[in-house]
Structure formats: structure tokens, C-alpha cells
Design brief:
The complex is a heterodimer of chains A (114) and B (112). Chain A is an all-beta fold and 114 residues long. Helix content of chain A is 0%, strand content 60%. Chain A has no helices and eleven strands. In chain A, strands 2, 4, 5, 9, 10 and 11 form a six-stranded mixed β-sheet that branches. A five-stranded antiparallel β-sheet of chain A has the order 1-3-8-7-6, with no helix packed on it. In chain A, a hairpin with a 2-residue loop joins strand 6 and strand 7. Chain A is globular, with a radius of gyration of 14 Å. The termini of chain A are far apart. In chain B, 0% of the residues lie in helices and 50% in strands. Chain B is built from no helices and eleven strands. In chain B, strands 2, 4, 5, 6, 9, 10 and 11 form a seven-stranded mixed β-sheet that branches. Chain B starts with a strand and ends with a strand. The chains are: A mainly beta (114), B mainly beta (112). Chains A and B meet through strand 4, strand 5, strand 9 and strand 10 of A and strand 5 and strand 10 of B.
């Protein structure tokens, strides 16, 4: 994988159900993996910054895991609520000859139906 | 606690005009960046800076210039606006790669 890829692009979840989605990134020159939550008409807000293989982070009903060796991270939402409706972005921080920069995936748009 | 401040919030330009989007942060962050957001394309990095006097290109730098004369300010200049530059622009800053990015409220730019 050369760039950051997120799947699925969108998903509909029934209120109360749990869900998860994937961020795939290059496994070489890994430095950090960020997750952001982005509500319509607002700015992205940080959820997690993950740096170590095997990292697990949790914030309320949202959690994330990281596998740097195979280049993927999962974001989980437990017991989805309508207020969880947003686009979830992951971003890969790469350090190398090409620079020191944060590259975003296209996002997973989550719609929680009451 | 201002955080990251972007001005203006909205702007309409004619093709060929130039303008500067302003970005300022009061958190003493070294890393600052500009992104553009287009439908279905997430956030794409235009330019970034790892400190005063140091800037570098991102994924989509063509048509944009930046400078970083102080830690606080990171303006983005459109040299000769084109309709393809119609977008929402976000400025962000962070202390380093292990810290989350703080985003401004965005500038919605339309070029006719």
C-alpha cells in the first residue's frame, strides 16, 4: 500500500449496534497513526494518536487498535448513537527522505439511524 | 484560548486574482499545515512547515505558495486563482507527530 486507504467509504448503522472499520497504511517508515472525527460543517477533532505496534486506545464508546507490521488500524464504535454520525478520518505520519508529513485517508462516513 | 485561527471564513474570487489565506496559532506549535477538502477526496496536504523558516510541499502544492516567518503564522497564497482551486481550506498545527493536529474552522473559497 502506497497511500492511506479507509474502508468502507460509508456505512449505515442501527442505533445500539456496534460497528468497526479499517484504515490501511504503508508499513514502512511508520511514525504515528492518527484518528479524527469530523462532523458536517465543523473541523476535524482528534480521537487518538497511536505510535506503538499493538497499541489500543479508548475514548468512551470508541476504541482503536494498531498493527504497524501489517499496516492497519481498526476503529470500533460500541453501541452506536445518533451523535456518532460523522466522518472518521485516519492519517499516517511518515518520516523519511520525502519529508515529515501527515497523509489522510478518504474517510469512513458513518450514519447512525435511530 | 484561541487555538488555530483562520481568516477569512468565506471568500469569492475571480479567475486570475490573487489572495492570501491567513492562519495563526497561539499554542507555540512547530508543525503547521494547509489542507484542502474536496467532495469525495478527504483532506489533501498542500504545504506544511516544521518550524519558522522551513516549509515543504505536500500532495497538491501547485498554484500555492507559503512562508513561515514566525512560529505563530503560516499564510497560504494563491498566486493566480483558478476555478479548480474552489474548495474548503483547513489550516492545522501540532507540537509534533506524536501529538494531535488542531484544526482551524476552515475557509470556504469559491473562484468564478
Amino acid at each position: 500500500i502506497l497511500n492511506v486507504e479507509q474502508s468502507p467509504q460509508s456505512l449505515h448503522v442501527q442505533e445500539g449496534d456496534s460497528t468497526n472499520f479499517t484504515c490501511s497504511f504503508p508499513s514502512s517508515n511508520f511514525y504515528a497513526l492518527h484518528w479524527y472525527r469530523w462532523e458536517t460543517a465543523k473541523s476535524p477533532e482528534a480521537l487518538f494518536v497511536m505510535t506503538l505496534n499493538g497499541d489500543e486506545k479508548k475514548k468512551g464508546r470508541i476504541s482503536a487498535t494498531l498493527n504497524t507490521k501489517e499496516g492497519y488500524s481498526y476503529l470500533y464504535i460500541k453501541g452506536s448513537q445518533p451523535e456518532d454520525s460523522a466522518t472518521y478520518l485516519c492519517a499516517f505520519w511518515k518520516v523519511g527522505a520525502a519529508g515529515n508529513k501527515l497523509t489522510f485517508g478518504g474517510g469512513t462516513r458513518v450514519l447512525v439511524k435511530p | 484560548n484561541a487555538g488555530v485561527t483562520q481568516t477569512p471564513k468565506f471568500q469569492v474570487l475571480k479567475t486570475g486574482q490573487s489572495m492570501t489565506l491567513q492562519c495563526a496559532q497561539d499554542m507555540n506549535h512547530e508543525y503547521m499545515s494547509w489542507y484542502r477538502q474536496d467532495p469525495g477526496m478527504g483532506l489533501r496536504l498542500i504545504h506544511y512547515s516544521v518550524g519558522a523558516g522551513i516549509t515543504d510541499q505536500g500532495e497538491v502544492p501547485n498554484g500555492y505558495n507559503v512562508s513561515r516567518s514566525t512560529t505563530e503564522d503560516f499564510p497560504l497564497r494563491l498566486l493566480s486563482a483558478a476555478p479548480s482551486q474552489t474548495s474548503v481550506y483547513f489550516c492545522a498545527s501540532s507540537r509534533n507527530s506524536n501529538q494531535p493536529q488542531h484544526f482551524g474552522d476552515g475557509t470556504r473559497l469559491s473562484i468564478l
